[in-house]
C-alpha cells in the first residue's frame, strides 16, 4: 500500500472528515480542497496512536477561481458552512492569496499550496461526485507520513516557519514529531 492509499484510507475511515468533505463539496466551488490541519493533524494523530482526533482550530477550505477573487465571496461561504455545521470554517480563494505574500499571481491551486510555510501543511484532499478521494500535495507526502515538520524552501522565510512551529504548539501535542532545524526540535 502506498502512503497516498494509506492516507486516503485514514480519511475515508473518519466519519467526521467524510461529512466535512461532503459539506465542502456542496458549496460547488471550483477546484476545491480541504487542506492544512484537516489532513496534517489526522496523520500526526495516527502516527502517535491517538484514539481520538485532535480538534481543529478551523477547517481550511481552499479553492481556485481567478475570475472572481473577492474576499466577500469567501466570507459568504464561511457563514453558510458555519451556520449549517456549527464548525469553524476558513474559506480562501487561493487566486488572490498571492497579494498577502507579495508573490506574482498564482496560476493554479497547486502553485498556491506549493508556497505554504511547511511542506506537511501543503496537502489537500477533495471528494468527487463519485465519492472518490483525491490528494493534492505539490511537495509530496513523504515527510508528513514520516512525522517530520519541514520548512518549505519555496516559501522563502524560515523565521515565519520558526514562529509558526512555536505558536502552534505542535511539539506539545505530538511529542514524537521531528521538527527541522528548530530549538528543541529533533
What report would you give on this structure?
With 186 residues, this protein is an alpha/beta fold. The chain has one domain (3-146): Beta Polymerase, domain 2. 40% of the residues lie in helices and 13% in strands. It has nine helices and seven strands, in the order H-H-E-H-E-H-E-H-H-E-E-H-E-H-H-E. The chain has a five-stranded mixed sheet with strand order 3-2-1-4-5. A two-stranded parallel ribbon has the order 6-7. 33% of the residues are buried. The mean pLDDT is 93.
List the helices and strands and how they pair.
Elements: H1 3-12, H2 15-25, E1 33-35, H3 37-47, E2 59-63, H4 71-85, E3 89-93, H5 98-101, H6 109-113, E4 124-127, E5 133-136, H7 142-145, E6 148-149, H8 158-168, H9 170-173, E7 178-179
Inertia-based shape: globular
Q: How far is it from the N-terminal to the C-terminal residue, by CA? A: 28 Å
Structural class: alpha/beta
What is the number of independent domains?
1
**What is Rg?**
16 Å
Q: Helicity level, as a percent range?
A: 40-55%
Count of β-strands: 7
Number of helices: 9
Q: How do the strands of the widest beta sheet line up side by side?
A: 3-2-1-4-5
Order of helices and strands: HHEHEHEHHEEHEHHE
Largest sheet report = 5 strands, mixed
Q: Which CATH C-level class is it?
A: Alpha Beta
Stretches where pLDDT falls below 50 for ≥5 residues? none
The CATH architecture assignment turns out to be 2-Layer Sandwich
